[in-house]
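ok so for the tutorial part 2 we go from a plain amino acid sequence to predicted structure tokens. step 1 is just haveing the sequence, like this:
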Amino acid sequence: MRIPFIWRRTADANEQVWKDRVDYWRRRAEAFERDLATEVAARRTATTLFSDLYDEHERVTHAVQPEQRPGFDEQKARGAADRIARLQRGVARARKEAATQGRRADHLQRRLDDAVGLHHGGHIRDSRQYQPGYEKPKADAS
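step 2 — the prediction. this is what the tokens look like for a chain of 142 residues:
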């Protein structure tokens, strides 16, 4: 038997498998088309709303010049900008002065350390000569 004979049941089963696969892909394609249509509709709605809002914004902002806007005071705005600039200069001066005073304090601390015989660097290795009765902490045995 060289000719490929196929049993009827096998042929029907194979045909059903292919039909099921075609149905699966058809359902999937239809779901995709529905999702695509929903997405397109949502984007059109969003685009329309954005366009309307943008047009309203343009109408309002270009119709009224900054000097004509209610609540806008050019003199007050300039004063605020000048005050901000003065505050920034004042902060810079204060930082510079703080750094100068820090350097001065460091210099005075070094002179004091020299006067009392402390090592430079400020860290005391053994304070028995400055604190009578001081005992070095013992290491825990645990």
